[in-house]
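User: Reviewer 2 asked us to show a designed sequence for the structure in our supplementary figure. I'm pasting the structure tokens here. Could you produce the per-position amino acids so we can include them in the response letter?
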């Protein structure tokens, strides 16, 4: 039967849905505790220059190991954090840890920019700019070493308002990346109007790259499009040497993926960066 639910309007009520809701509730409670007991960690995946093969940046990715040591994937808990409002707390933890680590790297002689993912709720939050300023101030990190990753659905709601927010962020020297490009509406109108620095092509295009020429062509098109807008382009989820060869031929600036490295805890990353720079 049909049930009225507050936020989402009518939806079909069934066993599966009610189970999921109970699970979500449990997850929310656990996440609340996780924030209090500092269970969230930040891992880092290198961003690599396609032509030179050197590390040119890092992406901060949240990791949650619960009290039993079990890991819970961000794909599972980020949506619940968004719905429950806990995302603000999660985001602040990630931001503060990422800035502190980036500062530590910089002081060790490796001034690598670190990008932090922002979910749509965080982007809408009126406290966002204060949170950013606090994280930069507390860590002492050079503003140019902080970058933020936003997605298309975060900015679509109110384009004019989003542009204002993005400009305020950028006026602080923080760079902006558009994440998961190609999976949303990918409207050319907003792409042209948003103040951005980087475009990230989503992994799904890389997975299908050699399936047919259509996918090769669309990736080539996105690279040319980004460049014509003055944006640097990053490919996500590169696992095969053939994918990297293709990206090099098409002059894609940077890539990330298991081919080079999985996301790593800070200590392991420090070693990898040391090797890469020497
Ligand atoms: P994303 O920002 O698009 O991050 C890329 C995801 O792809 C990461 O998954 C990364 O570990 C994974 N990945 C990178 N290279 C490869 C590869 O070669 N092969 C495969 N199979 N996967 C690869 P992760 O860490 O599980 O994060 C998933 C998503 O959760 C992220 O997608 C992002 O949307 C969200 N997320 C992660 N950390 C945060 C955070 O601190 N805050 C917010 N708001 N969202 C986050
Ligand atoms: Mg990202
Ligand atoms: Mg992505
Ligand atoms: Mg993603």
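Assistant: Here is a per-position design you can include in the supplement:
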């Amino acid at each position: 039967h049909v049930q009225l639910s507050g936020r989402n309007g009518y939806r079909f009520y069934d066993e599966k849905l009610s189970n999921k809701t109970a699970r979500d509730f449990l997850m929310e409670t656990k996440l609340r505790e996780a924030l209090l007991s500092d269970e969230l960690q930040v891992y880092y995946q290198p961003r690599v220059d396609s032509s030179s093969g050197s590390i040119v940046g890092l992406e901060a990715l949240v990791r949650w190991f619960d009290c039993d040591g079990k890991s819970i994937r961000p794909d599972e808990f980020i949506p619940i954090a968004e719905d429950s409002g806990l995302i603000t707390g999660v985001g602040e933890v990630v931001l503060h840890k990422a800035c502190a680590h980036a500062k530590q790297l910089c002081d060790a002689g490796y001034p690598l920019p670190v990008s932090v993912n922002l979910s749509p709720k965080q982007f809408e939050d009126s406290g966002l700019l204060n949170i950013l300023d606090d994280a930069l101030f507390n860590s002492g990190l050079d503003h140019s070493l902080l970058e933020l990753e936003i997605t298309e659905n975060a900015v679509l709601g109110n384009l004019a308002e989003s542009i204002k927010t993005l400009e305020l962020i950028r006026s602080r020297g923080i760079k902006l990346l558009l994440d998961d490009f190609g999976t949303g509406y990918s409207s050319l109108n907003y792409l042209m109007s948003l103040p951005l620095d980087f475009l990230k092509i989503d992994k799904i295009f890389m997975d299908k790259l050699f399936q047919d020429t259509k996918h090769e062509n669309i990736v080539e098109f996105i690279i040319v499009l980004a460049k014509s807008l003055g944006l640097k382009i990053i490919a996500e989820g590169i696992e095969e040497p053939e994918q990297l060869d293709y990206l090099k031929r098409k002059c894609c600036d940077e890539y990330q993926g298991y081919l080079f490295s999985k996301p790593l805890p800070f200590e392991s990353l420090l070693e990898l960066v040391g090797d890469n720079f020497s």
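For the response letter, you might also mention the following. The chain has twelve helices and twelve strands. The pocket of magnesium ion (ligand 2) is lined by residues 59, 117, 149, 179 (CB under 6 Å).
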